[in-house]
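User: Design a sequence. Structure:
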């Protein structure tokens, strides 16, 4: 798949959810729905060339109301060292 014209694509995707049990679910804007929904937001990195593509990495965006609630994080099995990061910061990591 190696190619001099290959690119790294970093993009976020919203996953519509109902309820509050899934990690990171909150009322937030999702580009796929073009408005605010109860959803999760994932940031994905993919290597893309004319030969194909390969998934590289991913991160789940956690809204501030999630990262400010240690009991909620623990109940969702989020590691204790995970803190708030904007979508833009997740894209840089």
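Assistant: Done.
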């Amino acid at each position: 798949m190696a190619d001099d014209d290959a690119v790294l694509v970093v993009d976020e995707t919203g996953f519509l959810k109902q309820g509050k049990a899934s990690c990171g679910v909150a009322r937030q804007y999702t580009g796929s729905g073009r408005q605010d929904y109860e959803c999760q937001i994932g940031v994905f990195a993919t290597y893309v060339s004319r030969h194909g593509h390969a998934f590289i990495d991913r991160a789940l965006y956690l809204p501030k109301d999630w990262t400010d609630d240690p009991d909620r994080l623990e109940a969702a099995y989020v590691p204790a060292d995970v803190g708030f990061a904007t979508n833009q910061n997740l894209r840089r990591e």
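The helical segments are 64-67, 70-75, 87-92. The chain has a mean pLDDT of 87.
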